[in-house]
Structures
1.
Amino acid sequence: MGTPCHFALFELQPSFRLDLEQLATRYRELARGVHPDRFADASEREQRLALEQSASLNEAYQTLKSPPKRARYLLAMKGGELPMEVTVHDPDFLMQQMQWREELEDLQDQADVAGVAVFKRRLKAAQEALNESFAACWDDAAQREQAERLMRRMQFLDKLTYEVRQLEERLDD
């Protein structure tokens, strides 16, 4: 049987569109049930099981709450594991990536705090648009290639957003 799917763990139907607040609430409820403190007096085997359950619950939650990770997970459920690094033929997006990277470097060089905030909002809008596109096509086998391309774009934007946050912190200091 193996481990239950991440969605089943939270009693959810596999879907890209999730209510993240509902997910967080359910996570907290389940996490309390397997918290190591509750098993302090239990046998070693029960303690180990609780620890394993806690770890897989955590992994499931981290996967489902992140749109790129959720997208990758759904695609893997549908058609097998995806290689982490594949250069999908996506020349338009490669150009876009280069533009964003250059812009971010300029903002960094100029220590432009206001500019970084604007850039961050644009990234967020781009992420939301990607999420919508992915939600619309992930479960259609005919659009598998497009869904994978979108998922990889989402991964890139996720990474870029992280870099923008780091830059903001450096500029705040």
2.
Amino acid sequence: MVKNIHFNVETDLAAGLLALVKQLDRSLELTEPVQMYIAGGMATHLYTASRVTADVDAEFSKRFLVPADLLVETAEGNVLYLDAAYNSTFALMHEDYLRDAIKVPMASDHIEVYVLSPVDLIVSKIARLSGPDLGDIQSLVWNMRITAEEIERRATEALGGYVGNMSTVRMNLEEVLKIAQKYELESSPDVD
């Protein structure tokens, strides 16, 4: 597992996320703590600063309706919104993904922000593996030094709770493992 994580909370997008979290806190008139677990492109951005996104994929420790008017425009003109359609049950998720999520040093009065661990974030992208997912995975592998062995172990454990086309998920997993193996080969010292 990754140690000593530096989150990119100084970026324009991260500042927008913090503004969105604070706006959500005020809008819901929260009086007790709520945990927010971020996945997707925003989580990738917080780890690598290499991803730009408009939607924030998140789930919460409490249930509520997402306010329809919840939008934030960042200083650089990016618009952020909370994706009310995000649903982690459609992704390949390890049973401990929430327990292993990592707290981000940003919060509002009542909302604590967490992101999926880097390996769980990679695993969460395996079932769909479309659009920017491959780029996100490559960026996470390269920046967070996630090994093929870590990905394979966590994904294999997650398969036990997955319902869907297993052959597609296994094929996607093989593609992701090749990305991690390529990084391992390129980053290992040459041995003569």
